[in-house]
User: What shape does this take?
Amino acid sequence: MFSKVLIANRGEIAVRIVRACRDMGLHSVAIHSTVDRNSLHVKLADESVCVGGASAQASYLNIPNIISAAEITGAKAIHPGYGFLAENADFAEICQECDLTFVGPSAEVISLMGDKAQAKVTARKAEVPLIEGSEGLLEDSDQARQLAEQIGYPVLLKAAGGGGGKGMRIVRGQGDLESAFQMAQGEAKAAFNNGGLYMEQYLENARHIEVQILFDNEGNGLLFPERECSVQRRHQKLIEESPSPAVTPQARQKLMEYASRIQKAVRYKSAGTAEFLLDKKGGLHFIEMNTRLQVEHGVSEMITGVDIVREQLAIASGNRIGVDQKGLRAGGHAMEFRINAEDPENNFAPSPGVVHRVHLPAGPWVRVDTLLEPGTEVLPHYDSLIAKVMVWGENRNEAIRRARRALSELSIEGPKTTREFHLEVLHNSRFLSGDYSTHFIQEEFGN
Assistant: This one.
């Protein structure tokens, strides 16, 4: 096994990876921008290297500087976390060319499944059900208009090269298509340097369900129970839970089978996620695959006891996965609440600033992954996620009660956060009943 890992990321996920390295006896190297030099991941890592200025482009996306940092420090592996370069096939290939182990799937698989349009082609060949839509990339808005008329409005325009809600537009009528196409294309090009778009029929009141997969180089691996990710605002997830209150045992078996087919089709290794929509009639539809560690991986860890990041590092070093499918023991119910530095009362506007005081919840079956400590400056240059509060309970009701307790204990003085919003959700009758869809926040809170 390699003995030193460079973490090509920042914030809570960088802290999470540093801790996994420490548990495994691995030396960790943190990279940071000029404005992140005092961040928690830098303090916790064994050593650190500045790779550029405040903007992500100058630092956390600066491939030459990141590769140089690995060479200077003697790191033999690079863990990309999520976001930034995690799904950048060129970066994975450069790592390989420089004799560095990329902790993730191969560049070829990232390229294939990272292109959402090509991922659908792969899924179709594997006989995994899809939403009706374009076979590949749309050439222009005229082709998009013809296809929309064929499959029927509403339709969804989606960026082929990324995720997180960027480059995505719902189009409810022909009059909106041209402007939506131009906006989605421009946003996709700015975010992912790839303006390619594809189209899907838009399913009203669907639920967003995903399956965590984790496989080693020999094809041994795990399919985790599904995660429910339907509490979203503008296609950005805010709350995740596992198992889903809407998935029946029969649907769960289908999800596992479909995820398995996709994994086998590309011989996927490392951690990844197959994502689906569950329609009102109980139908399942593959939408995309994330070829990286997910923000919400901790939910799956809490119901199984499997350390996904540790297994990622072990797999990257050539070891077999530590647990097989028959040995996977899932139990109870877990939930994650993303604490963002945003003001829910002001249309979730970003709220950067200095954290003067922070008190994190604790107690049985509560976990907090965060970048925060007193004096932390939440910066405007990066994503607004500053903490993830996770809880586990014997059942969903107990998890909800524990979540209320944990979020009530959480105190962050400085930036405004989404804490109070989450507490409102935890008292909402529709959420409590488990009867919600991706439209939940818009319908219940008007956002």
Notes: The chain has three domains: 4-103, 132-201, 207-445. The radius of gyration is 21 Å. Residues 4-103 form a domain with the Rossmann fold fold (CATH 3.40.50.20).
